[in-house]
Amino acid sequence: MRAPSSELPIEFDGVTVTAGGVTILDNIALTLLPGPPTVLIGPNGSGKSTLLRVAMGLLTPSRGRITWGGLEKVPPLKRAIVFQRPAMLRRSAAANIRFALRAAGVPRAEHGRRVGELLELVGLGQLADRAARRLSGGEQQRLALARALARDPAVLFLDEPTASLDPVATKAVEDIIRAVSERNIKVVMATHDLGEARRLAGDVVMLHRGQIVETGAAASFFDRPQSAEAKTFLAGELLV
Q1: With contact defined as beta carbons under 8 Å apart, do 225 and 231 qualify?
Q2: Cis link prior to 76 (omega < 30° from 0)?
Q3: Based on the domain organization, do 145 and 171 belong to the same domain?
Q4: Could you tell me if residue 84 is inside a domain?
């Protein structure tokens, strides 16, 4: 079990991100705490992916500040992110993970054990020698999760990791997310799938037009949404 992380809490204080004169995130105030997965929901273009990139440290706010464990400008050594369509290296599944282990500075003597553990965790133990680019879409996403976990992250950001996957592949990825969370790794995940959000979320953050319109524990959010935007979105109606 992982000890409490110095990366947490992650705090957004008036974070605004603009690009080309367009405001993508607008005065975001948010605290990400240890615990079950935090799931970001909202319509396309609401700012979910940008929020993840700012939290990872890949984007710098145009205004406001973000802190990790109370500190600014913390190197993302204990953070990892998996995108919707991860790129696979032209090598085997096992070699993809070895590359990630080397990049994370893991001693070479530990590589064999760690590769085996990570492949088993994501259900790819029998495919270690298969070319990563020949894996199915669901298998590639699980391999991407294994590569991210090679960093031994305290926080794992996931940007719609099951988009375009079939139900069987989606369940496999969701099972990994649950297993990761049980290891005290904080998962922060964006999804467009409300069923998935219900299954995985400990708490929910809903965005619309770059602003947070509602946050709360998942059970109360889905059963008793407070904002007009959340009620409309959960009813499957178009938000404008």
Answers
A1: yes
A2: no
A3: no
A4: no
**In 10 A of CB 56, how many CB atoms?**
18
Indicate whether this model's pTM tops 0.85: yes
Selection from 46, 147, 154 nearest residue 95 by Cα: 147
Same domain, 158 and 74: yes
Q: What is the pLDDT of residue 239?
A: 83
- Write the pLDDT tens digit of every residue in 129-185: 999 999 999 999 999 999 999 999 999 999 999 998 999 999 999 999 999 999 999
CA-wise closest residue to 54 among 88, 20, 18: 18
Is residue 204 packed enough to be buried (19+ CB in 10 Å), middle (13-18) or exposed (0-12)? buried
The domain of 138 spans: 90-151
Neighbouring C-alpha atoms within 13 Å toward the C-beta of 97: 30
Tell me: do 147 and 168 sit in the same domain. no
User: In this structure, are 134 and 34 located in the same domain?
Assistant: no
How many other C-beta atoms lie within 10 A of the C-beta of residue 220? Answer: 12
User: Pairing state of beta strands 38-41 and 203-208?
Assistant: parallel
How many domains, in total, are found in the chain? 2
pLDDT under 50 in the chain at which residues? 1-4
